[in-house]
Amino acid sequence: MHVIGTVGLAGSGKGEAATVAREAGIPVVTMGDVVRQETADRGLDPASDHGQVAQALRKENGPAAIAERSLPMIEDRLEDHDAVLVDGLRSDREVDRFEDRFGDAFTLVSIEAPFDLRRERVEDRGRDTSEDDGGEPLAERDERERGFGMGEAMERAEVTIENTDSLEAFHERIRTVIREGGIDRNHSPTHEP
């Protein structure tokens, strides 16, 4: 059993990492989908109200609320698979919850990229309401997510991948993490300065 969690600010490449996992036959649990579903269940627009609902879930049910809602999905997929990728951890409390549940079978991967490159990617993917149409500016989203404890979670990652090269180079780094089952706890060949 192995659970690989990804953490990173919007546009860093977490979705691409999930794509690579799926291509390798590894199921993916996307924490953002948990929030988007809750947003829709509350009769709100997932494209514009996602952040507000994420904050509400944490306020109503504690800082690990989204991780808690993800655990049954992860455990279900582990019944038929040796590994699962959890896309989009947002806080150190979520990391705590996954470490408590999965112990040494959990590896946290921080995916990082510069602000301007991330902004371009977020605009290109067109999933969120644009800033011009009243959507949340990326700098504010970064601040909100850091307020959840994302910065602390990123610092705790066992593997850090700088996603600034070609898409293929990034995919190969993710394949390496998957192939190696995470990392050798004493040396990480996938760690990028």
What would the keywords be for this entry?
193 residues; alpha/beta; 53% helix; disordered C terminus
Blueprint (SSEs and pairs):
Layout: E1 2-7, H1 14-23, E2 28-30, H2 31-41, H3 46-61, H4 65-78, E3 83-89, H5 92-102, E4 106-112, H6 115-125, H7 138-148, H8 150-155, E5 159-162, H9 167-179
Parallel strand pairs: 1-3, 1-4, 2-3, 4-5
Quick overview:
With 193 residues, the chain is α/β, with parallel strands linked by helices. Helices cover 53% and strands 14% of the residues.
Any overview of this molecule?
The protein has 193 residues and is α/β, with parallel strands linked by helices. The protein has helices spanning 14-23, 31-41, 46-61, 65-78, 92-102, 115-125, 138-148, 150-155, 167-179, and strands spanning 2-7, 28-30, 83-89, 106-112, 159-162. Helix 2 crosses helix 3 (46-61) and helix 4 packs parallel to helix 5. The two termini are 28 Å apart. The protein is globular, with a radius of gyration of 16 Å.
Class derived from helix and strand content? alpha/beta
Beta-strand level of the residues, as a percent range? 5-15%
Order of helices and strands: EHEHHHEHEHHHEH
Quick check: average pLDDT? 88
Q: Which strand order do you get reading across the main beta sheet?
A: 2-3-1-4-5
| Percent range of helical residues | 40-55%
Stretches where pLDDT is under 50 for at least 5 consecutive residues are 183-193
Main β sheet profile: 5 strands, parallel
Number of strands: 5
Mind telling me the C-alpha Rg?
16 Å
Shape, principal axes of CA atoms: globular
The number of helices is 9
Give the end-to-end Cα distance, rounded to a whole number of Å: 28 Å
